[in-house]
Amino acid sequence: MSVETPTLSRERFVRWDDPTALADAGRTMSGREFLEAMLHGDLPSPPICHLVDFAISGVGDGQVDMTLTPQESQYNPIGSVHGGVIATVLDSVMGCAVHTRLPAGRGYTTLEIKVNYLRGITRDTGPMTAAGRVVHLGGRTAVALASLSDKTGRLYAEASTTCLVFDLPSTAAA
Amino acid sequence: MSVETPTLSRERFVRWDDPTALADAGRTMSGREFLEAMLHGDLPSPPICHLVDFAISGVGDGQVDMTLTPQESQYNPIGSVHGGVIATVLDSVMGCAVHTRLPAGRGYTTLEIKVNYLRGITRDTGPMTAAGRVVHLGGRTAVALASLSDKTGRLYAEASTTCLVFDLPSTAAA
Amino acid sequence: MSVETPTLSRERFVRWDDPTALADAGRTMSGREFLEAMLHGDLPSPPICHLVDFAISGVGDGQVDMTLTPQESQYNPIGSVHGGVIATVLDSVMGCAVHTRLPAGRGYTTLEIKVNYLRGITRDTGPMTAAGRVVHLGGRTAVALASLSDKTGRLYAEASTTCLVFDLPSTAAA
Amino acid sequence: MSVETPTLSRERFVRWDDPTALADAGRTMSGREFLEAMLHGDLPSPPICHLVDFAISGVGDGQVDMTLTPQESQYNPIGSVHGGVIATVLDSVMGCAVHTRLPAGRGYTTLEIKVNYLRGITRDTGPMTAAGRVVHLGGRTAVALASLSDKTGRLYAEASTTCLVFDLPSTAAA
Fold this sequence. Notes:
The structure is a homotetramer of 174-residue chains. Chain A is an alpha+beta fold and 174 residues long. The first copy, chain A, has 4 helices and 7 strands.
């Protein structure tokens, strides 16, 4: 679908795993086990992590950290990292923070996300850490917050989300 | 940074142009001219369009449409298109809708974005259209709204944004 | 709790009905019937409508209008109508718009609201209309949008909300 | 505008000061001085504080606390404190937190606010504390966060805001 011109001079080769196995594992493990398996390389990262280039770097009780490497392939038309890339990482740490609190058989989906952008990000900003934490987990919904900062602790974005939490449909045994 | 396991079986080759020339063009053209040049292939799409796989498909006065192709490389760990991908496209149509109203020498940056997710999206959902429109343009800020729908007009997400608008710093002549 | 100084020279006498009967009626009528009864004066308005001074002025399928009268008692420290007053009216039209789609025995609660303020409002702005409409109603959640405009149709604010929808607990018969 | 029925059995007498003097003071004092004068009763509270019944209870560097007393006059049609009342207090602590960082001659206005509601609030919830804090102050915008909790520290709402900050127009001397 991209406009193809002969000048496309930069390239990145993106490789990822079939996400079906990952989603299946997510249905049988607790969120904490699932995310720790991903952190330790026992489960593959989901495709989006390979595409956008971010990775889980910490898992706690109601808390998840991820690391984002700003790079040119994430650029918008005005010469900086696209806000959607930042939203992607912040959405991920918040959803996964909620997931750490869910037992096997419970799932979640994101109802809404809001991101406040404090400063622009370029390749020169260097590796960034997104930190998500749950502030409320009820029987039907959860609320989480997140922030994005550089190595020096300088803030670049703040975010909040509402997730729906629910019982996963039980899958028929073979 | 991705966890590399020998099983990475899927791949996508992403190619894009040096975004410097694009950002430079953005500083000398009106927003409408800039986006129409991109629509007609006279300017390259920014890297993020190639990475995430979406493209501008319509430019009007205070309005921009883009087309997104849902695909596996955009998937989250729970088996559907990551909410950040949807935020990326909606942020783009809203920022660009604001841009259509700016003369040469004026720029914008996104202060915040909120997205409401109405339904999940998978590869099977098919091509989607994001439509952004400006509802307010003042001297210092602009507000835009957007929605994402499939071919049948069914809604999948709604979004709103605040942008800061300002005079671009004049660049020194060669 | 207010700081009491001898200079408090302006006053407003606020009167309202015991809201218990209203909340009880809300549990036995469909949302549409409930709101139309309020519109026609067959049910009292809730206390907040009397306190802030706004009233329901239209009820449709998935749509509700309310009228707000800007006045000094709603002022913030910087000399204009407080943003919270605007949020109150927009939250109301969105929640009630969702309610119009719920049968008797179903209830809703607001999970989150976002408001974009486009222009300041003072007493001189004159009566304003808030219009809310549902864009999605699922089995567990609903999403609604709203805008606030003056008599000439000029926009002053835009809003979005996510509501949780659910079966009301059945109340024991006498 | 309220629907007047003979049954309006509850009442509250709201008194406030002419807000003009307050707004004038706000133009000549630093934000910190202005808010501390209000805290100590040397300046009157704005009308909205008297109407909704909340008051400033703490002022720091980039931080403001306010106390809200939940009561029946703030009720929505479904029998709890209206979300707009909560938005009003959270908007106030965030805007005022930004104000504490502004010198005399600088002003602010709220561009947008988002509130996540975690739990319902009734009269029985008791006095609540809203705490706002600035997370970013730039030359043109500021971002602040806030939360609302009861005496035990239990959270009821979270909020975020973007404010525009600017030089106030200088007023002609007499």
